[in-house]
Amino acid sequence: MNAPLAHDWTIANQQLLVAEFARLKERLPRSTGNNAQNQNAETAAALADARQLLHTESAIDWLTAAFGLSGFERDLLLLCAGAEMDADLARCCALAQGDATRPWVTFGLALAALESPHWSALTPQRPLRRWRLLDIDNHAGLAAGRLRIDERVLHFLVGINELDARLAHLLRPALALPRQAGGHAATTQAAMAALDGDPGQWPVIVLEGDDPAAQEDIATRCADALGLSCLVIQAEDIPLAAEERAALITLWQREATLLGAALLIIVSDPASATGEAARALIERVAGLCLVACPSAPALLTQNQRFPVNKPAGADRRQLWIDTLGPGGAHHAGPELDRAASHFRLGSRAVQSIAKTLQTSLALPAASDKARASAPGILWNGCRQESRGGLDNLAQRLETTADWDSLVLPEAQLSVLRQIAAHLRQRFKVQEEWGFAAQGNRGLGLATLFAGESGTGKTLAAEVLAHTLHLDLYRIDLSAVVSKYIGETEKNLRQVFDAAEDCGAILLFDEADALFGKRTEVKDSHDRHANIEVSYLLQRMEAYHGLAVLTTNLKSSLDTAFLRRLRFVVQFPFPDQEQRLALWQRAFPAATPTRDLDLDKLSRLSMTGGSIRNIALNAAFLAADAGHPVGMNHLLQAAHAEASKRERPLADAETRGWA
Questions:
Q1: Which of 5, 150, 387, 583 has the CA that lies 20 to 30 A from 531?
Q2: Is 482 helix (H, G, I), strand (E, B) or coil?
Q3: CB contact set of 250 (below 8 Å; sequence gap of 6+)
C-alpha cells in the first residue's frame, strides 16, 4: 500500500468495494421488501472474482489489519463508505430506519443489521474513534447519531493514498542530498544501528548540530532503509494548546500508518515555547520519530543523540571532490583546497555550488577561457552562499584597494603580507602539514591595527580582503558593547557564529570600547567586564578567519591582551616622503588638474585619510566652478578638513598654495 497503486489493482479494489456494498445491502431492508440474511450466489461470486484479480490485499483488508478492526468494525466502516458512494445503499439505510430523510448510517442500524455486533466498537479507545476513522454526530445520541466516514479514509478505501489535507500545510517531504560527507555517512550507520530492533521500542533519534540539510538527509536515509517515507514538521507549526496538539498527534499517527511514514521535527529554539510544544509531541508520537535541532532539547522519552555539524577539514574537501567529479575538481585546481579550508559550508551548499560549476563546464560553448574561470566561479559561489547570516549583523564593505594603494613603511607592509600568506596557505599548513591535529588553540589570526585615525588601518583591511577575494565586515564595538550583563557576549557570539561560515575578515572598530586596561575587580560590573574581554579573546583565538581590531591608542590596551594577538601592526603618522606618495595617488587619472605642487602639498601634516578627504572635496569645488583641480581648490578643502579637528591651519603651512 505504500508504493504507487497500479491501475489494475485500483480497478480490482473498486470492484471489491462494489461487491462488499452489495453484500451489505442484502443485510438491510430493500425497496422490494426483501430482507435477505445471507449473501446470494451472485454477490459471493463477485467478491471471489474481485479478490482473485487483486493478487494482494484490498484497501479495506489492509486497513483492517493495520488498525486492528474487528469484523463488525470492518463492516461498519464499509457501510459508512457505501452510504457516501452508493445511492442504493444509502436508500436502504433510510428504509431500515423508516425515514426517507435519513439516508445514512447510525450505530443502532449497524447493531441491528451487521454480524457479530458489539457496543465497544464506538468507545474512544477502539480504533474507529481513536484513529478518527469515523465521526459521530453526538447531538442525537450514540445509537441514533449519524456516523460519517472520514474523507481521508474514504479516499484510501478507493485507492487514493495522499496526505490528509488538514496536514498538508504543516508537513512536507524530507529532502535527501545526492551525496553524504564521510562523517555524516558514519552517523547514518550509527543511527540505523540504534533502530535495529522492535519498531515498538525505537528510540527518538536526535540529530543535533549546525547542518540542517545533512540532518534532514540522514533522517530521510534512515526512514528509507526501513521502508518508510519521511515527512517534516517545523516546531513553530506545532499547536501550543494541548487539545489542538492532541488532535494533530492523532491525525499524524493515522497518516504514519496509512502512508508508511516517519516524522522529522525541526526545532530551531529548544528553549522556547515552540520547543516545549515539540517536546510534548515527541513524548506521545509512536513509530519512527527524529528530531533536528542546533542543540538537543530536554527529552523525557528514550532517545539517541548524534552530532550532525557542517563537514570539517578533510571531510569537507572530500565532499567537494566527490561532488565535482574528477573533471570539475581538475578545473577548480588549487582553489578547491583553499575554498574547502576557508568556507565552512553545509552539505547542501557545497553540492549546490558544485552543480552550478558542473553546469557551466558542461555547456557545449564552454571555451578554454570559461574553464579557466572555474576557480573564480567556485570561490565566488562560496562567498555568496556563506555571507547571508553576517549581512544581518555587520556592515559589509565593498573593497577595491590593492597593495599599491597602501603607503606604509616596509616593516608594516611585510607584516601585512605575512597575514595574507597565513590566510592563503591555511589548508596546507593546518590540514596537510598537521598543525590542526594538535588543537585549534593559537591557529586564529587575531590582529591589532593601531594608529591615529586616517593612517590606513581600514584601508589595509580592505587591501587584504580585495587581494585575497574575501568579504570584509565592519563591526562597531561601541554598538556591540551593552550595559546589560550578558548582552555583549550574546552580540559577539552571534557575530562570530555567523562569520565562521564565510571566513570573512572581521574589522572591529573602536577596540578601546571593550579592550581598555582591565581594572581591579571591585564589583560585579568590573567582574563582568573582564568576562566579556576574556570571551572575546577566546572567540578570536578560535576563529578560523582574520579578526582585525583597530585602536587609536595602543597604550590603553591591556598588555595581557596584546600577548594573545597573532599580529600587531602599528600604523605610523606618515612622514613627508610618504605624504608625497599619498598625494601622487590622491587623484584618479581621469581627474583634470592644473599646476598642482605636490611638494608643497606633502609638507602639510595630514594623515592619508585626511589627504583623501582634501583631494575629494577639492575635486567637488573644481567641478562646481567648471575648472580643473588647482591649488586654490585644495587650499579651501584643506582649511575645511582642519576645521573638523578644531585646529586651524597656520598661514605658514599653506604659504604659496594660491
A1: 387
A2: coil
A3: 130, 131, 132
